UniProtKB/TrEMBL annotation:
Residues 3-174 form the Thioredoxin domain. It comes from Rhodanobacter glycinis. It holds the Pfam family AhpC-TSA. One of its GO terms (molecular function) is antioxidant activity. It comes from the Bacteria. This is Alkyl hydroperoxide reductase.
Length: 182
């Protein structure tokens, strides 16, 4: 079942791909909790690339990012984690965390993304190769969580390549402080 704002974000006790604990229930931080499909998903890997490239600016504005894949630790390491990432990647091989957050499945929406998001699909395939053709039917979802642990926005993808727009993430964050020369 889908979650909605302003519900409390369900607590998750996850371990990142290096064995370190990730506590989603901790308060006091702004968080983007992103649920990804299979670790070889071309759309997912392209989004990880985008988040990696924007991380410095987002982190400077107070955002923590946590990426959760419905995949084994070995697969997350092989695909999304083959390069160092500035935020934690977690494996959820049984999809239990995905279920807690109401992540949906749809073959139709997966096929829709393949047919309508060809440029992103091709860029993502460049990151994962042919393994990207053998992915499941989970849909992506993103959750913006405030300092009190409340969901500010729950964004369930309309297809396998649909993610919360970066502009909405940026609007969620405090304005950047401009330094003035003394």
């Amino acid at each position: 079942m889908r979650l909605f704002a302003p519900e409390s974000a369900p607590a998750l006790d996850l371990v990142d791909i290096h064995g370190l604990p990730i506590m989603i229930s901790s308060r006091g931080r702004l968080t983007l909790l992103s649920f990804f499909r299979d670790a070889a998903c071309p759309f997912c890997n392209f989004r990880i690339y985008e988040l990696t490239n924007n991380h410095a600016e987002l982190a400077a504005r107070g955002l923590d990012i946590v990426a959760v894949f419905s995949a084994s630790q070995a697969d997350v390491l092989r695909f999304a984690g083959h390069r160092p990432r500035p935020f934690p990647l977690a494996a959820d091989p049984t999809s239990s965390a995905h279920e807690i957050y109401g992540i949906e499945r749809s073959l139709w929406r997966k096929l829709k993304a393949i047919a309508t998001r060809v440029p992103t699909l091709l860029r993502g395939m460049g990151l994962v190769g042919l393994a990207g053709l053998d992915t499941g039917n989970l849909m992506p979802a993103d959750f913006l969580i405030d300092e009190r642990g409340r969901i500010v926005e729950a964004y369930y993808g309309s297809d396998a390549g649909d993610r919360i727009p970066m502009e909405r993430i940026e609007r969620f964050l405090p304005c950047a402080r401009v330094r003035h020369a003394a």
